[in-house]
What does this fold into?
Amino acid sequence: MLSVDERVDAALDLGIDHVLVLPFDRETAATSAEEFIRAGLVERLHARHVVVGENFRFGRCGAGDPDFPAASGEFFGFAVDAMPLVRHGGRVCSSTEVRGLLADGDTATARRLLGRSAGRVISSDSASL
It folds into this structure.
């Protein structure tokens, strides 16, 4: 799994101009979808265009789905694009899928989905040695 710094570097290498890493703590987890949009995207970041995955969820209890920021964007004046999930060989390229493959020991399929090595895999059994 990539560290936050490695993920930021990968995004910058892809041509992203700026990356903002927000802490995910109890306060953030308790923020409503409405408050996240108003305070975070509009007041703090002055968002003009937001891109999310088609299965994106945010806000307390995952109440905000891709339709919610689109409707909010119309109200607050920013555009929203919901991008389709990336698939490879009929499988969704997601962290959940890759973690499952790694848990099953299928590093070859995980590598294909990631398009790169999955890094060093340490089993929970070896941690106790």
Notes: The CA atoms of residues 91 and 97 lie 8 Å apart.
